[in-house]
């Protein structure tokens, strides 16, 4: 089961800076009035552009209201990019390409589409991308984290959780305070409103939209707000319609329980090798007892630490690692140590709901704000700890292993955009066993928004654009044909 893969750098907290697009100061690149665009080659106006040989992608700044309820108030700059169609057609609908997030640069995405199975769409569509407000080259608040404090290796689960909670709580309070007006307006719905300002600036009545991972949240919000302005929309690796983080963490843990159940069955079949018995219930009890024991008294061997979370992580490995996991499990049950080093502790790791972090890194405040401003789950310590303990009680061997501390003591709130069942063509694709955006989230979005759902039979996040069945995506954007059923995934 994939665990978080993004670690915020532990460097001192610095003053906030509200940046104007991070485009090089140039009269030709400066933002014009709201709704107007001046396109220039990105390589000439964007600082540290990823590909110095990219002469096709154009960039511009779009000026939009910070607060759409106050359209004449404070304005911010949104960085946008486009790759012109190779064979422009009259009145062709531009395709907006959203590559995930939160907190990540996305304006470099149009050129990237040429390296995927979506490339044929660039023949007759302008490919357009946008850095969501608060990230990338758009206006944002820069606020880095303090170093993560030391946690004793013998700390129990509550002490470890409290250390992670307090770390995020300090960050949230300090960084939001730098510009609370700005942080309050970082929501998927406002990113969707920015996208509609881009549509207006492009002078088109409708857009096509292909979004993956967190960009699906922006896409779903856009369709709920502007259904008649969607020509066609495909969302791959879908975010849930409601951000209840305890439920979302439980959905990730459910994948771990599935892997654990399979591992237990495998161990029972291989009793001759590992001598854990053939009674599956007895094996589960031994694992649960070991987790409880190491929660009470973690074993420390030099820099290596074996605690209850280590046990849960070990037994939720993918089938390809079961043999190694079994050897380590038996060794620890007998009082020994695992073959592989065990490293625990440190700052909580952030998983981007999108592609690998591109140049520019991840803006952690935007990440937290996008996930927390509209969250429906509690943000206090007791709320989050009680929810984790409830999941642990329901599934003793693996419950409570995964948790998202990003909303710890989050000081702001905004009303989430109600999901609407629209009429515009909406196609979803979910990956059956992936752990970044679990398949269950696509099922919930399908029900809430009204859509077709293609099931991709793999555990790879956002893999559709590299699969043979990307042909279904091409067909959808050419004639609107939706599809259900299954699609072979990554082997």
Automatic annotation (TrEMBL):
Signal sequence, renumbered to the chain: 1-29
GO molecular function: hydrolase activity
The Peptidase S33 tripeptidyl aminopeptidase-like C-terminal domain, residue ranges: 403-483
Name of a matching Pfam family: Abhydrolase_4
Keywords: Hydrolase, Signal
Residue ranges of every copy of the AB hydrolase-1 domain listed in the record: 118-286
Family from the record: Belongs to the peptidase S33 family.
Protein name: Alpha/beta fold hydrolase
Organism for this UniProt entry: Streptomyces violaceorubidus
